[in-house]
UniProtKB/TrEMBL annotation, chains A, B:
Residues 204-413 form the Mvd1 C-terminal domain. It comes from the Eukaryota. InterPro entries: GHMP_kinase_C_sf (IPR036554), Mev_decarb (IPR005935), Mev_diP_decarb (IPR029765), MVD-like_N (IPR053859), Mvd1_C (IPR041431), Ribosomal_Su5_D2-typ_SF (IPR020568), Ribsml_uS5_D2-typ_fold_subgr (IPR014721). It is an enzyme of class 4 (lyase). Its EC number is 4.1.1.33. Keywords: ATP-binding, Lipid biosynthesis, Lipid metabolism, Lyase, Nucleotide-binding, Steroid biosynthesis, Steroid metabolism, Sterol biosynthesis, Sterol metabolism. This is Diphosphomevalonate decarboxylase. Performs the first committed step in the biosynthesis of isoprene-containing compounds such as sterols and terpenoids. Pfam families: MDD_C, MVD-like_N. Belongs to the diphosphomevalonate decarboxylase family. It catalyses: (R)-5-diphosphomevalonate + ATP = isopentenyl diphosphate + ADP + phosphate + CO2. PANTHER family: DIPHOSPHOMEVALONATE DECARBOXYLASE (PTHR10977:SF3). Residues 17-190 form the Diphosphomevalonate decarboxylase-like N-terminal domain.
Length: 431, 431
């Protein structure tokens, strides 16, 4: 280590995307190593709209490992954090920055304590895969800080031990998490199927129905499904392997009809397995409070809206998928369809009177522009979707919190610009 | 036929129970013959509270077949009615009533037209198996009228062709519909597992959440599941055969824990298969109108209430099962538990202020008495269920239409008392 111990702080800042599974991960065969019962496939979401930014720092002046999430200090004592930290420290290499006079040898890393600050630009733990982006970002940033030589797939196997779906956030575009066979998990890792440019017609609209934390954690929900659902094993062994092959083919060929059909069917099957669990898991819902009682209804309304439209068009225009939380992820065939989708969604779910359109539709505002919507007057003037035959067409003002317009996006990046760091370069404490 | 043709009306009046499946029937292997993809098991409900009464009549004065359901004339031209009529006419035998001077030979039956009047003492087509009771009653009454010699199981194979679950309404108590192997369906019929006295501790409380007709008919829903759900075949081939064996054993031994566990798991799995269908079937719900938007919530609240209570007791006290419609059928271990169940249900779902308690809890009023509830003051004074830890415990006034307290009941009966007939013995027209 450098002579002037305590005088320096070495930091790395990285940004990592979240991802949405189109073939779902549900069920672990090993809870500690986080080894899944089936392969899964995801689309990485553009980090411009949904991402985690993490700064990791070491300094001889730090006396214990500390972490801040969204500016609030949280405990690092959990097994999942510890597993990731241990795995990365085991892979740390010699590091030298002659300019700053910092030299850290491989053996020194385990004596140095870490400060970690992480920030999500979207609601935590509401089914928008915040832990996926978070653990991916932590592992990626630590690997860069500690000069680890592992490639992205090898890092994904470490991130997997923090949160299963985190392994898929190590890549942009379309990503497969291979379940692997090794009982130690060495081959349970992510690979990129295609980058974000491969199919850049796709537009993604997320309807955030509730930003509240979900009632059943994924971990306990999965465990209960594995233990009690008689359909889960059949899904894992018989259904998913075929769907994985079909989905890879659909992505390769940019075959939207197959992609949408598989995505919707797999989302529904995941929720079916949750319902087949004892006691049944009601993910899209919260049964204890009236104010959240419309969440599941809203999700079903969104499914119905998409199903009706797809049927009226004769071929799928939009795919829907729901993770463990009441937020709909809608994938539109192209930008034109996305504008039509947004028109439909805004017709059915107009913002509350006290909500500003600008904060109701966030992310890529060009979709709003394409939809011809510049203000609330345009929302009010929207005609009912022609495929809806209920007269008058029902509206559900306020049932959606907000919409995020986004697209398939890139994988993790490092920020060399120190102004983006979440820790003060002098003190190593949150800015 | 008798000489004075046109002067007489020959009638039979029968009453047939409805039934609730505890191992569900979902999916046909033959749509015309109504042959299922798996065996099912049901409990027959006491006809004192839920039944169909049907009067069938022949007279040389009738010039075509006619039917009235709940006093409204309906068409008999449907294939299902025609199949049942044809099958029974094929089995008609010579009949003679010397007193009335009526003599009908086997060959004469097909020349005689029928008048049929049927009445359900509960809402039609809302998932309370009205078509089950209806077709069972039609076939049973016609068989008696036409002096057919078939036993109940043989008649069940005819009723099955009207509505699959109707075959299970030919018996009281606990009934199995054997799927059979014959491609013509001759061995797809119901058998009684145990009569209604075998396990007479059980009390059944039905929460009628909506008496509205369901949006997706069972027939088209089943067809879509068979065509699109990859979980349905696994359920039919692998899951249900094991559950049938376990359920028969549970019924034989009056093993409530196993009975309840199997009943709840199978109800949830049936709904899981509906969700795994493309497009997904949302049975417990109606997505198009706000006023019905709480139905599914209510069902989930009832499931949650039962699950929490069962867990807090350490062993199941109550089983729940939901058919294709938003009504919960709750089966309590015994009368004492049923009273506690009713207390919980009335606490969570008190009647609307304009609803009279007497019409809110119908059927076997002794459960209300055992629960210590004589009037609205007693409902208001109910303490929250101790296992609910939300403070204050939420109440959902008006979300349940009414409750029916009942029990396992007897099979079809004939009424010899002509005052119970629904047709005028002189004219053969509805009274």
């Amino acid at each position: 280590m450098a002579e002037e111990s305590g005088k320096w702080v070495l930091m790395v800042t990285a940004q990592t995307p979240t991802n949405i599974a189109v073939i779902k991960y549900w069920g672990k065969r090993d809870e500690t190593l986080i080894l899944p019962v089936n392969d899964s496939i995801s689309v990485t979401l553009d980090p411009d709209h949904l991402c985690t930014t993490t700064t990791v720092a070491v300094s001889p002046s730090f006396d214990h490992d500390r972490m801040w999430l969204n500016a609030k200090e949280i405990s690092l004592s959990g097994g999942r954090f510890q597993n990731c930290l241990r795995e990365i420290r085991n892979r740390a290499c010699d590091f030298e920055d002659k300019e700053k006079g910092i030299k850290i040898e491989k053996k020194d890393w385990e004596k140095l304590h870490l400060h970690i600050a992480s920030y999500n630009n979207f609601p935590t733990a509401a089914g928008l895969a915040s832990s996926a982006a978070g653990f991916a970002c932590l592992v990626f940033a630590l690997a860069k800080l500690m000069n680890a030589k592992e490639d992205q797939s090898q890092l994904s196997a470490i991130a997997r031990q923090g949160s299963g779906s985190a392994c898929r956030s190590l890549f942009g575009g379309f990503v497969k998490w291979i379940m692997g066979k090794d009982e130690k998990g060495s081959d349970s890792l992510a690979v990129q199927l295609a980058d974000e440019e491969h199919w850049n017609d796709l537009v993604i609209v997320i309807a955030v129905v509730s930003s509240r934390q979900k009632e059943t954690s994924s971990t306990s929900g999965m465990r209960e499904s594995v233990e009690t659902s008689l359909l889960l094993q059949h899904r894992a062994k018989e259904v998913v392997p075929k769907r994985i092959v079909q989905m890879e083919e659909a992505i390769k060929n940019r075959d939207f009809s197959s992609f949408a059909q598989l995505t919707c069917a797999d989302s529904n099957q995941f929720h079916a397995v949750c319902l087949d669990t004892s006691p049944p898991i009601f993910y899209m819902n919260d049964t204890s409070h009236r104010q959240f009682s419309t969440n599941m209804e809203t999700c079903f309304r969104i499914i119905s809206c998409v199903e009706k439209w797809n049927r009226s068009e004769g071929s799928p225009q939009v795919a829907y998928t729901f993770d463990a939380g009441p937020n709909a992820v809608l994938i539109a065939r192209n930008k034109k369809v996305a504008a039509q989708l947004l028109q439909r969604l805004l017709f059915i779910f107009p913002p509350s009177s006290d909500t500003d359109l600008n904060s109701y539709v966030i992310g890529d505002k060009s979709i709003l522009h394409d939809a011809g919507i510049g203000g609330m007057k345009d929302v009010e003037a929207l005609p009912p979707p022609p495929e809806i035959n209920t007269v008058p067409a029902q509206k559900y003002q306020g049932d959606v919190s907000y919409f995020i317009c986004t697209r398939p996006g890139r994988g993790p990046v490092l920020f060399s610009d120190e102004s983006k760091a979440l820790l003060n370069p002098e003190t190593g404490l949150p800015k």
